[in-house]
Model the fold of this input.
Amino acid sequence: MKRRAVLHSLTPEITCIDDAGESVCYVVRGKERAAVIDTVNGHEDLKAIVREITDLPLIVLNTHGHCDHIWGNAYFDEAYLHPADMDLYKAHFANHPLHLPSCPVRPIEAGETVDLGGRTLEVVHIPGHTRGSIALLDRQAGYLFSGDAINGQLWMQLGESTKLADYLESLNALDPIRPAFTELHTGHNVEGVPAAYIDEMKASIRAILAANGAGDDDFAWFGGTAKRHYMRPDTWVLYTPDKL
Done:
């Protein structure tokens, strides 16, 4: 069987692991330990794959509690997640594709830092896609690892998603750290996008709210029907009227 995981070196210290084009995770190496940011879909032993990259001690950081970012936690000793997504995490992990149990999951909060030795990741809370969504800021690389909190195809139609106005506040709250990063690295694409994409996302959310959803088409997804607001081809925001 062909291996799902494909490794992409972004910098000498940062590797993106693409899981069959379904979601991605990252390995960020310092001098003393390495962070695994998200753990994708759990079909393969992700820890063994990470060990092809580094033999440093590992810390697993989940950007949010959705299945395609956490199921690989089963292969690690422990992981960290924002408390607001703990119940969501448990609900999703109960449906692990290989019926594997989760490792212990510890809380991590906004403002905390993860010292990797010569490289630090800062926890940034971005409630929106889920209430416990976080990003990890790497000032040394100039990267913000945003998971699905800021993504090319943003899902805001979920029960665990906030209202759009609250998400806009989350984006505005990033302004003080904007000079610290030049690229966003999301949960579903190997390639990074310029940090200015945040401004495009803000403008789109404001446009949805100003029009009260008028002009956006219906979009069928596996959980029902949502409204779809295009930002550009293949880039959109999904939402439901209750999120306005």
Remarks:
- The chain is about 15% helix and 35% strand.
- Residues 84 and 132 are 4 Å apart (CA to CA).
